[in-house]
Each structure stands twice: as C-alpha cells, then as structure tokens.
C-alpha cells in the first residue's frame, strides 16, 4: 500500500480518492488548485467544521494547509453554492470535518515511509474517548521530499488537536486547533526561489438543544503568514481573521429551516499592499423539504463584505431518488 498508493498530502489524498484533477502552480509542489466544476481555487468555498476559510491575499485558501491526519471526512460538492456559501462559491464547495467519532479504547496509529525523490515521511495520531464523555484526538506529521527538478526541496510539518466534551445533558463543547508550516527551495540554474508558509487555525464550538431547536455557537481564529523571495524580489504578507457564527435549526412538519448570522473581522498586512482592516457580515435562511423520494432546498443569503459591497444571493434545487 505504501509503495503503490500512499497519499501524504491533502492534494494526493483528494486526487486519488475523489478522482479530482489538480492544477499545479508556476513553481512545482506549490499553489495547487482542485479543478471542481471547471472552476479554479478562487471560485471555490472552503469550510472547516462549517466555518469559512480564506487567506485574503491569495483570494481563497490552499488545500495543502490542511493537515491530512487531522480530518475525519471531506465533502466535495461541485456546482454553484452562492446561496449557502456566498458569491465566491461559483464552482463548488469543499467541507472539511475534524474528528467526531472517538473509539472507546485508546488507539494509536504510527506511520513511517521512505520513497522516491528522497522522501522521508512520519506521522502519528492518537484517539481516545475518556469515560465516554470526553473525546480526544491528537495528530502530527513531518514530510521532506525533493521535487521534479534539480535543486528543488520542500518540507512540511503539521500538528492538530481536538477535544469534544459533553458538558450538560444536550450541550457539548468542541475545541480544535491545527498548525501547518511548509518551506520550499527551488533553484533552476542560477535562480533561487524560496517560499515559507505558516497557517494556524483555532476554533471553539458550543452545541446544544432548546426544546426542538438545535443551536450552535462558534468562534474561530485564522492566522496566515507567507514569505517569498528570489534573486531580485522579496514579499511578505499575512492575515489574522476572527469569525463569530450563530446557527439555529429545527423541523416544522416536512420543512427543516436553518438560520445563521456570521461576522468576520479581517486584519491584513504585506510588503506589496497596504495594511487593511475590515469587517464582513453575513446572514441567511436555508430550508429543506422531504416528500418521499423527492427532496428540495432553497437558500437565501445576504453578505456585506469588508469593502462595503452588498452581495445578495438565492438558490434552489430539487432531487428525486429513483431507487
């Protein structure tokens, strides 16, 4: 398995598992984009446990920032999702889910691999459900590999931790954190290119139920830093993003409505652009209807982005199961 089909990055895992093609960036092993629904990265919506991810200076988010061993599920939905995710999700959305099913007994998985291109790979993940009330998942990985060209070498390190605890009857709390760092050195001939990325995410979710209404309150912090230089130029830019999100869902007969309100605070800086602070506000109402084999959905959303633009959206769809 390790020699024939062994994914060590999110791009490899998604490409082999979902048969999705990735467009490579100008420099090998960097800035790859999943081509979903015919659209590139800038037309896709990325979420982690339901909350949006974005690095403003690259107009979207890199999938290789996500630690592979920190996920439980990942869902790809091609097609426009502007009514659910906002105006940027014209090609599709990618939902990443962190661990939620914890084993009753402690489990540990350790993996070490070596291969072509001077590949060195090591990873570990530990999961446990303490007294069936507190779920814990911790993972870490380290990768070093040479590229397709002479003088190309990349390194990456990932760590993550998840804690989920039942605090009172129908109320639970989830605490999650992850960090990614990668370094690329690329020297074709006399030209040197260096890239150093850091991406860290922390989140807290409180889930509960009041009568027949399910509530979820979330807070998330994203921090990104990027350093690029070659023989002639040097660029540095970063961003801190704080997200607050409140959602309420219920069931009324055959209809399942969901209402949400979300606010994101952006603080960006860089050598090639002016520092910029801003706030975006989003609100929306989604509804699902189930009638036997027929299901339908309608979603409305309004966004006011950090540049002050008003962006309304609406979408609807229906599906019939012939099985």
Folded structure, characterized:
The chain has 323 residues and is mainly β. 4% of the residues lie in helices and 61% in strands. The protein contains 2 helices and 18 strands. Strands 7-8-9-10-11-12-13-14-15-16-17-18 form a 12-stranded antiparallel beta sheet. A 4-stranded mixed beta sheet has the order 4-3-6-5, with no helix packed on it. Strand 7 and strand 8 form a beta hairpin. It is globular, with a radius of gyration of 21 Å. The mean pLDDT is 84.
State the secondary-structure class.
Answer: mainly beta
Intertermini distance:
35 Å
Q: Please state the overall shape, judged from the principal axes of the Cα atoms.
A: globular
Helix-strand string: HEEEEEHEEEEEEEEEEEEE
- How many distinct helices? 2
Q: Outline the low-pLDDT stretches.
A: none
Strand content: over 45%
Percent helix range: under 10%
What's the arrangement of strands in the largest beta sheet? Answer: 7-8-9-10-11-12-13-14-15-16-17-18
Write down the overall mean pLDDT. 84
Rg estimate, integer Å: 21 Å
Q: Biggest sheet: strands, sense, closure?
A: 12 strands, antiparallel
Number of strands: 18
Strand-helix topology:
Layout: H1 10-18, E1 22-23, E2 33-34, E3 44-48, E4 51-53, E5 73-78, H2 82-85, E6 92-97, E7 107-115, E8 119-130, E9 134-146, E10 153-168, E11 171-186, E12 193-210, E13 213-230, E14 234-249, E15 255-270, E16 276-291, E17 294-304, E18 310-320
Parallel strand pairs: 3-6
Antiparallel strand pairs: 1-2, 3-4, 5-6, 7-8, 8-9, 9-10, 10-11, 11-12, 12-13, 13-14, 14-15, 15-16, 16-17, 17-18
């Amino acid at each position: 398995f390790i020699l024939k089909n062994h994914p060590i990055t999110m791009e490899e895992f998604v490409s082999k598992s979902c048969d999705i093609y990735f467009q490579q960036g100008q420099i090998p092993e960097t800035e790859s984009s999943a081509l979903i629904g015919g659209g590139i990265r800038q037309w896709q919506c990325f979420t982690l446990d339901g909350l949006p991810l974005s690095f403003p200076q690259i107009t979207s988010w890199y999938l290789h920032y996500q630690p592979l061993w920190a996920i439980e599920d990942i869902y790809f939905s091609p097609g426009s999702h502007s009514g659910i995710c906002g105006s940027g999700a014209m090609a599709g959305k990618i939902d990443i889910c962190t661990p939620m099913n914890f084993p009753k007994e402690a489990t540990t998985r350790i993996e070490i691999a070596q291969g072509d291109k001077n590949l060195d790979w090591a990873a570990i993940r530990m999961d446990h459900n303490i007294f069936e009330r507190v779920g814990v998942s911790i993972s870490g990985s380290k990768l070093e590999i040479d590229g397709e060209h002479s003088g190309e070498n990349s390194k990456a390190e990932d760590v993550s931790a998840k804690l989920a605890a039942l605090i009172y009857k129908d109320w639970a709390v989830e605490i999650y954190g992850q960090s990614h760092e990668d370094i690329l050195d690329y020297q074709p001939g006399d030209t040197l290119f260096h890239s150093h990325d850091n991406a860290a995410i922390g989140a807290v979710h409180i889930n509960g139920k009041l009568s027949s209404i399910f509530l979820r309150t979330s807070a998330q912090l994203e921090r990104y830093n990027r350093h690029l230089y070659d023989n002639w130029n040097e660029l540095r830019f970063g961003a801190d993003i704080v997200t607050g999100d409140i959602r309420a869902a219920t069931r009324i007969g055959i209809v399942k409505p969901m209402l949400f309100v979300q606010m994101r605070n952006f603080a960006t800086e860089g050598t090639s652009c002016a520092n910029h602070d801003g706030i975006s506000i989003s609100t929306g109402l989604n509804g699902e209807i189930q009638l036997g084999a027929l299901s339908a959905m309608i979603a409305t959303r309004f966004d006011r982005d950090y540049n002050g633009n008003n962006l309304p959206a609406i979408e609807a769809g229906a599906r019939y199961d012939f099985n």
